[in-house]
């Protein structure tokens, strides 16, 4: 299956949760944020998603294996400008036949966020539990609905105090899971230590597992 | 109450600009198929390099909502002096199909484009990172050149390439400078003269780029002159020394013809600009009083 991890706002933890879900679901995480890539691996270690979209490499050969397998994205503006997100479909089709994919979507509601969502069978909407962030989550949910990507789960990320879950579920019309703030989650990408694998019994690890379970259920 | 077509064409410089309005006075939406009757390819409106929805090589296929009018337009190169009466025909009117486009297509078509703005991307052929001096070009520019080159290469015939606009500009520069690699300094010269991009680079680097372009052309012209009506000995000498310059002899006539055209265009433009520059009268004192 192809899972999109989306959310209208930047900086709410989409990439971190994508990485964690990659570990929990044994999927390849595709950094589909063409203009602001932040998953490990870059140009210096071989082809990236910019190359794949430009037809210079296949998605399969651009995957970097590690604790979590990642298809990274290039970081040059020129590459981002040249990359055509509309080709994402054919670019990852071959890889999607072999592995489950987690697409780490960019923030916003433009085509670069919409195309990965449109490709996905289901999506996880990541949001901060703060009330001001929910409006963006609602917009992402709307976009996902328009593009036929069912919302498997709302992840209320980096929760400090236990947020009110029920109103969020009512507003967004999907089950919500609270992912607590945990410094290990913050480090998981840079240290390549996904909590889902290194600390599955921590509160954060259990939260990631709950999101993964919701995703499996939506399959 | 039937669907009606009102089409007209305006031929400018050998290209027919066709505008059409399809009116549907009926109470239900109708699917219409418009077929181009002109003697030339259909150049549809494009968005991010991709033809707008409904356009094909033949014409347009789309839905006119009930009691509404659909306006469409396209261009068609028909050649100088051709007439373009009745440019379109209404080939088919039918019930709209129930199918909608697949989600990826909808996402691409309906959501605003996301590519970083052109201004944010350092152009590898900008005045300061000229190919004439690749050692000085930064790594970023090299990357950009690599990306652009490789991404641009499959572009011909590929309608969805978002670099198309940029390539247009690059190819315009190349056209001005001739078909050979050595002609590329024309791009900075052209861009600088366009005003916007070169402004930040300042007047001196504009002038340098123009000088570099003219020097390249001058070398080429000098070689052309050497080989014009040359004796065997002279020609041999000229050819022996020719490897220093980029243009192969076989391509020299074409390159020189292109140079001549580019220089004439440049001269004409330079003259017009000079006239306009002379005609200006900035009232500095008055402005100072206002400020």
TrEMBL record, chain A:
Limits of the CobQ/CobB/MinD/ParA nucleotide binding domain: 3-98
GO biological process: cell division; negative regulation of cell division
GO cellular component: cytoplasmic side of plasma membrane; cytosol
InterPro entries referenced in this protein's UniProt entry, alphabetically: CobQ/CobB/MinD/ParA_Nub-bd_dom, P-loop_NTPase, ParA/MinD_ATPase
Keywords of this entry: Cell cycle, Cell division
Keyword Cell cycle carried by entry: yes
Alphabetical list of PANTHER family matching this protein: ATPASE INVOLVED IN CHROMOSOME PARTITIONING, PARA_MIND FAMILY, SEPTUM SITE-DETERMINING PROTEIN MIND HOMOLOG, CHLOROPLASTIC-RELATED
A GO MF term: ATP binding
UniProt keyword ATP-binding, yes or no: no
SUPFAM superfamilies xrefs: P-loop containing nucleoside triphosphate hydrolases (SSF52540)
Name of the protein in its database record: Cell division inhibitor MinD-like (ATPase involved in chromosome partitioning)
TrEMBL record, chain B:
Protein name, UniProt field: DUF8080 domain-containing protein
Segments traversing the membrane: none
The DUF8080 domain, residue ranges: 208-281
Chain residue ranges for the region called Disordered: 89-208
Annotated Low complexity bias: 147-162, 181-191
InterPro entries: DUF7857 (IPR057179), DUF8080 (IPR058393)
Compositional bias per record (Basic and acidic residues), positions renumbered to this chain: 132-146, 163-178
């Amino acid at each position: 299956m192809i899972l999109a991890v989306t959310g209208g706002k930047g900086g709410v933890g989409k990439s971190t949760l994508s990485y964690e879900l990659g570990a929990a679901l044994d999927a390849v995480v595709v950094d589909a944020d063409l203009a602001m890539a932040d998953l490990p691996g870059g140009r210096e270690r071989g082809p990236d998603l910019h190359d794949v979209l430009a037809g210079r490499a296949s998605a399969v050969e651009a995957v970097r294996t590690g604790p979590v397998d990642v298809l990274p994205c290039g970081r040059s503006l020129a590459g981002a400008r040249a990359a055509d997100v509309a080709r994402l479909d054919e670019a990852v089709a071959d890889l999607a036949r072999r592995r489950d994919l987690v697409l780490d979507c960019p923030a916003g509601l433009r085509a670069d966020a919409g195309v990965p969502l449109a490709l996905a069978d289901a999506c996880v909407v990541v949001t901060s539990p703060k009330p001001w962030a929910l409006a963006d989550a609602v917009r992402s949910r709307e976009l996902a609905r328009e593009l036929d990507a069912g919302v498997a789960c709302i992840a209320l990320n980096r929760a400090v105090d236990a947020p009110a879950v029920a109103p969020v579920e009512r507003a967004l019309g999907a089950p919500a899971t609270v992912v607590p703030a945990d410094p290990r989650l913050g480090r998981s990408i840079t240290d390549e230590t996904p909590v889902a694998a290194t600390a599955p019994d921590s509160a954060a690890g259990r939260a990631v597992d709950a999101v993964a379970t919701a995703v499996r259920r939506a399959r | 109450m039937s669907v009606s077509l009102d089409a007209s064409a305006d031929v400018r410089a050998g290209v027919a600009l066709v505008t059409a309005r399809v009116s549907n006075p009926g109470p239900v939406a109708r699917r219409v198929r418009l077929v181009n009757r002109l003697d030339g390819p259909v150049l549809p409106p494009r968005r991010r390099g991709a033809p707008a929805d409904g356009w094909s090589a033949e014409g347009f296929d789309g839905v006119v909502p009930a009691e509404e009018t659909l306006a469409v337009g396209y261009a068609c190169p028909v050649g100088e002096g051709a007439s373009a009466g009745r440019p379109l025909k209404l080939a088919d009117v039918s019930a709209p199909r129930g199918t909608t486009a697949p989600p990826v297509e909808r996402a691409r078509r309906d959501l605003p484009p996301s590519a970083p703005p052109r201004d944010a991307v350092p152009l590898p052929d900008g005045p300061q990172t000229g190919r004439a001096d690749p050692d000085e070009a930064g790594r970023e520019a090299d990357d950009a050149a690599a990306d652009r080159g490789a991404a641009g290469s499959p572009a011909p015939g590929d309608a969805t390439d978002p670099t198309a606009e940029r390539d247009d500009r690059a190819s315009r520069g190349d056209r001005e400078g001739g078909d050979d690699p050595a002609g590329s300094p024309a791009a900075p010269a052209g861009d600088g003269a366009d005003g916007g991009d070169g402004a930040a680079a300042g007047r001196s680097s504009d002038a340098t780029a123009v000088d570099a372009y003219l020097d390249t052309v001058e070398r080429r012209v000098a070689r052309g002159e050497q080989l014009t009506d040359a004796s065997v000995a002279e020609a041999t000498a000229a050819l022996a020394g020719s490897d220093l310059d980029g243009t192969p002899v076989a391509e020299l006539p074409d390159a020189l013809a292109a140079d001549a055209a580019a220089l004439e265009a440049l001269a004409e433009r330079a003259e017009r600009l000079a006239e306009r520059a002379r005609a200006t009268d900035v009232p500095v004192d008055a402005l100072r009083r206002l400020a």
